[in-house]
Amino acid sequence: MNNENYLDLNVADGSNMAAYVAKPENLSTDTPAIIVLQEAFGVNHHIRNVADRFAREGYLVIAPELFHRTAPKGFEGSYTDFPAVMPHMQALTIEGLTADLQAAYQWIMQQPVNQQAVFSIGYCLGGRVSFLANAVLPVKAAVSYYGGGLEKLTEQATQLHGKHLFIWGGLDQHIKPENIATIIKAVEDAGKDYVNTTFSYADHGFNCDERASYNEAASKEAWTLTLAFLKNS
């Protein structure tokens, strides 16, 4: 762990949360910022790489360790041992995640960035958390890649601040079509703007080049779509 890229944030509930930070070359009051939200496997090499990629695109990035209440600092789970990360996932609460997101956002507000151009993006578990971020933070827009459990957040749909991009894998056996339909209907009923995209040939986790389900074509296409969505929001 390169400590120069990490910081510790005090969360409102009294806990302490580590976060990975990636900065663009030229940080200014025109710089947009983005909160990158982890998969179930922690702020691992892949998530740090995603943060670095956004930084190269000109964003100030913070990736908070959402398991900080139950896992050691720097925790990284194994892609082949999902049961090992389940206890950390199950310990997450809406209240705790809201406090974590607010701590990350408050840090961004203290930086020399464009405070009107803050975004969130999350993958898998983080896809669900990114939707919550859109509801509890004044973000300009947010993105959810294959967010499992989003159907449990329908009550938050009316609170969305910015438009939301949903990205799914058509071969994903972890997320049921009816669950996708539930969250999309909630957003529609709330009168919120959204984009809903399915890559029919991609599986769950297709964006992660360190997982067996990685799909290079879908990952590249989703990346291009994501950058355009954020830029035009």
Question: Summarize this, please?
Answer:
It holds the Pfam family DLH. By secondary structure, this protein is an alpha/beta fold.
Low-confidence stretches are: none
Distance between the termini: 34 Å
Overall pLDDT level:
97
Order of secondary-structure elements: EEEHEHHEHEEHEH
Radius of gyration: 16 Å
Structural class: alpha/beta
Tell me how many strands there are. 8
> Approximately how much beta-strand content do the residues carry?
15-25%
Give the count of structural domains.
Answer: 1
Provide the CATH superfamily.
Alpha/Beta hydrolase fold, catalytic domain
* Spatial arrangement of strands, main beta sheet: 1-2-4-3-5-6-7-8
CATH class: Alpha Beta
Write the layout of secondary structure elements.
Layout lengths: L5 E5 L5 E7 L10 E5 L7 H12 L3 E5 L17 H9 L3 H16 L8 E6 L1 H12 L4 E5 L17 E7 L7 H13 L4 E6 L16 H17 L1
Parallel strand pairs: 3-4, 3-5, 5-6, 6-7, 7-8
Antiparallel strand pairs: 1-2, 2-4
Description:
With 233 residues, the chain is of the alpha/beta class. The protein has one domain: 3-Layer(aba) Sandwich (Rossmann fold). 34% of the residues lie in helices and 20% in strands. An 8-stranded mixed sheet has the order 1-2-4-3-5-6-7-8, sandwiched between helices. α3 crosses α4. The longest helix has 17 residues. 41% of the residues are buried. The model has no long low-confidence stretch (mean pLDDT 97).
